[in-house]
Design brief:
The chain is α/β, with parallel strands linked by helices. The protein is built from 22 helices and 27 strands. Helix 7 runs parallel beside helix 8.
């Protein structure tokens, strides 16, 4: 942080002139906060409602939309006399040694506490989408890989470790997880999402929230709501989703993460929905989120989102008007830095255009959260215990944010997330001898493993003079380690994007002289057009970027068997090569251990068990399309365009085989408020250990509004040794098949249902069907309904 050091590095000195009950930890937080609010001036109140982004660059490329236009210089010394609500990205703005950064942050907190009358420190927040976005921190797989692993427990453990590392250096709040449901695969931020199904997004996202919160970090759900449904898949484009799409697809992950996960913060989305920007929408941020769902945490602005009400949405006349709209809607904290909630808000409150009661409403929420975090306690110390007494240089290299246990977990998650899409001739596993050509622009680039919010891609690319901070083996390096007896040659062939084909012939010649070719193709993560995937890197279609398709054609023309390995942030259309590759493997930015994970899958050391969290399209057009389609969204004779994916949601192959056997019969009838168990036995009928992912879908043959052909309502990842069998039990409740009816209410409707146990969402992959009739009255349900299909797995 670019903040001059304070004279002390120990416990902050606290002014005593305004001591009172608010400092007494034995009192309830509500009593303490009420006492504190009554003592504050309007300027001091407003100061708790914004952050300051120290060191944010007003030149260069930027890491937030319109950063260069929206960052104003601030007078730190003058500003902090009022107090300060938040500190923005003290580790994620520039490369800084974690120990040095922790001491610098502590000194900044001391200065904040000493400058104001109340001695209240700021709440420090950071990005943590694919790991703590800090130099030297573990770079985990991106959220789309979490979805591909179908393993909530592993995601909880990852999030706990991320939160533990953040707490160890003085961070309080993490801006994750992303709970947007993919609606159009061309959208640049698909890599940041968990998948195209709301139940998968909800359960995996809630698992992440649990882990982060268990480490004492405030989890922040984003982007509430509708952001991923932007028109034309353009970042920040208008959203034209209807009420049912919002209620049945977009909102359920947020419901679950709040109710089941206990998230304490929500970030509003940049979206405008039917002409109303979310940052100015009290129906979403107050009526639904608070009055209906009962959320009592903080709503924070997406970066510059309040300012965008004036500059992009054009619904506010000036900064003060933007403050009025956002505060009225329910946005408590302006991030990343002060623009509208400072002097402009104070002036608006003084002239009566903003009621001071609204300022107090937001202030209460902010201070209650600071109270929960111990930031109002007299014993508060800015430094983690391990660093007390250290100066920045003494702290250098004392904090390890990428310890071996983190790397082992990153490897485990990466291995479970690799999806074997096709292996028609059992070309995989590779023998690992002879001549292997490793070809493609992603074969020997460490950044090929990382999404746009991993520190080396997000910030590090702007600091090429600084080491990456973590060890990231490439696919080429990992394969050489995996196959020490093979003769491995390499050629890039082409760039990730661009039109240069001059390297293709040399790559093809290398493949021609080899026994097998591993073609490693895919994306380069970036921001705002500086990549082929990532925030602001939206795609016109789903063809492989640049001339990578031509490279693949040339490799296949050699006659050498080609193993296609994709390292991407979204799925790409593969129909052109569907019957031509010897095998196809998909990994979604698998993190720092992705290279060894992929090498293990190719060698057979790792049995692939990932399943697609998004379908893989056949052709590059025909989008948007996800599997959640009513009859008119499916292939039919009324259109020449067939949107059916090449590989469906939930698809994935293994090196072993599994047999499914029906369990105890479920009742033929069930009341609309009833529940029952759905059972089956899964046996590993192959000769090696593996994991099957049992997926439970519902098909509603006739309903009062059109329904998807099938919809995921439960799943279980089942690990089995060779020959081993386990009984899987889904506890089905009728609430799980609720939907928004003709009257706009969420209902459970009586009638016939099919519960489908399947290996993917495709009809051909249904293994068992349980027919069930719901009886009794139509029920209206709300967010208190049963949200989760509980599962149990037992060895038999």
């Amino acid at each position: 942080m670019a903040i001059p050091p304070a004279p002390h590095a120990h416990q902050a000195s606290r002014p005593t002139a305004v001591d009172g009950p608010w400092r007494d930890p034995s009192l309830t937080p509500e009593t303490r906060v009420a006492d504190l609010v009554a003592r504050m001036t309007l300027e001091e109140k407003a100061a708790q409602l914004y952050g300051v982004w120290v060191g944010a660059d007003v030149d260069g490329d930027g890491v937030a939309p319109h950063q260069n236009d929206m960052v104003d210089p601030v007078d730190w010394d003058e500003l902090t006399t009022r107090g300060l609500g938040q500190l923005t990205r003290p580790f994620g703005t520039a490369p800084v040694d974690p120990g040095v950064g922790a001491v610098s942050l502590a000194r900044a907190q001391e200065r904040i506490a000493e400058a104001g009358r109340f001695g209240i420190p700021a709440l420090a927040h950071e990005e943590c989408l694919a790991g703590f976005t800090a130099w030297g921190a573990t770079a985990y797989p991106v959220p789309l890989s979490w979805g591909a692993a179908w393993n909530p427990e592993l995601v909880t453990e990852m999030a706990h470790r991320i939160g533990r590392d953040m707490r160890s250096v003085g961070i309080h709040q993490g801006l994750a997880p992303v709970l947007d449901v993919v609606r159009d695969l061309r959208w640049g931020r698909v890599e940041e999402t968990i998948g195209e199904d709301p139940y998968l997004v909800a359960t995996i996202g809630t698992a992440y929230v649990r882990g982060l919160e268990s480490a004492g970090i405030v989890a922040t759900l984003k982007h509430f709501a509708g952001y991923a449904a932007s028109a034309g898949a353009r970042n920040l484009s208008p959203v034209r989703a209807g009420a049912r799409e919002m209620a049945d697809v977009i909102l359920p992950p947020f419901e679950m993460a709040l109710r089941e996960g206990g998230a304490r913060s929500v970030m509003h989305s940049y979206a405008e929905i039917d002409g109303v920007p979310v940052a100015a929408d009290p129906a979403l941020l107050t009526e639904l989120l608070r009055d209906t769902w009962g959320f009592d945490g903080t709503v924070v602005a997406d970066y510059f989102g309040i300012g965008f009400l004036e500059t992009l949405h054009k619904v506010a006349a000036d900064r003060g008007d933007a403050a009025r709209l956002a505060l009225t809607a329910g946005v408590d904290v302006e991030l990343p830095t002060v623009r509208s909630y400072g002097d402009e808000l104070v002036a608006a409150a003084r002239n009566g255009s903003v009621a001071e009661e609204l300022v107090d409403r937001a202030l209460n929420r902010v201070l209650l959260q600071k109270c929960e975090l111990g930031l109002l306690d007299p014993e508060w110390s800015p430094l983690p215990a391990a660093l007390i007494g250290a100066d920045p240089e003494q702290a250098r290299a004392t904090v390890d944010l990428d310890p071996p246990e983190n790397r082992a977990l990153a490897r485990q998650l990466a291995e479970q997330a690799v999806v074997l899409l096709a292996n028609p001739g059992d070309a995989l596993p590779l023998r690992g001898d002879g001549r292997i050509a490793v070809v493609g622009p992603r074969a020997d680039d460490a950044l090929a493993m990382l999404g746009c919010y991993s520190f080396p891609s997000h910030v590090g690319v702007s600091h090429p003079e600084v080491p990456m901070g973590v060890d990231i083996p490439t696919v080429l390096e990992a394969l050489r380690g995996e196959f020490p007896g093979a003769d491995i040659g390499s050629a890039a062939g082409c760039d990730v994007d661009g039109t240069d084909t001059s390297g293709i012939e040399a790559a093809a010649e290398l493949a021609r002289r080899s026994d097998v070719c591993v073609a490693v193709l895919g994306d380069r993560a970036g921001l705002f057009g500086r990549g082929t995937s990532g925030e602001g890197c939206d795609a016109a279609d789903l063809a492989l970027p640049g001339v990578q398709g031509e490279l693949l054609d040339a490799l296949l023309a050699t006659g050498t068997p080609v193993i296609l390995v994709l390292l991407t942030g979204r799925p790409y259309a593969l129909g052109r090569w569907a019957d031509r590759t010897a095998a196809t493997v998909q990994a979604f930015f698998p993190g720092e251990e992705g290279g060894p994970a992929l090498a293990g899958v190719l060698s057979g050391r790792v049995n692939p068990s990932g399943r697609l969290p998004v379908g893989v399209p056949h052709g590059p057009g025909g989008q948007p399309w996800t599997y959640l389609q009513p009859p008119l969204g499916l292939a039919s004779g009324v259109s020449n365009l067939d949107p059916t994916p090449l590989y469906p949601f939930g698809h994935g192959l293994s090196y072993t085989s599994f047999e499914w056997q029906a369990g105890a019969a479920a009742p033929a009838e069930l009341r609309t408020d009833g529940s029952t168990d759905i059972e089956l036995t899964v046996r590993n009928s192959g000769d090696r250990e593996g994991a099957e992912v049992v997926q439970l879908y519902v098909h509603d043959p006739v309903a009062q509004t059109t329904r998807p052909e099938s919809r995921l309502i439960g799943y279980a990842r089942v690990q089995l040794a060779a020959g081993q069998a386990r009984r899987v039990r889904f506890h089905f409740h009728a609430d799980l098949v609720s939907f928004t009816g003709i009257g706009g209410r969420r209902i459970v409707e009586p009638g016939d249902l099919e519960l489908r146990l399947a290996t993917s969402s495709a009809a051909d992959d249904v293994k068992q069907t349980v027919k069930l009739r719901l009886t009794g009255p139509e029920r209206t349900v709300d967010h208190r309904r049963h949200l989760v299909c509980d599962t149990s797995i037992e060895l038999i």
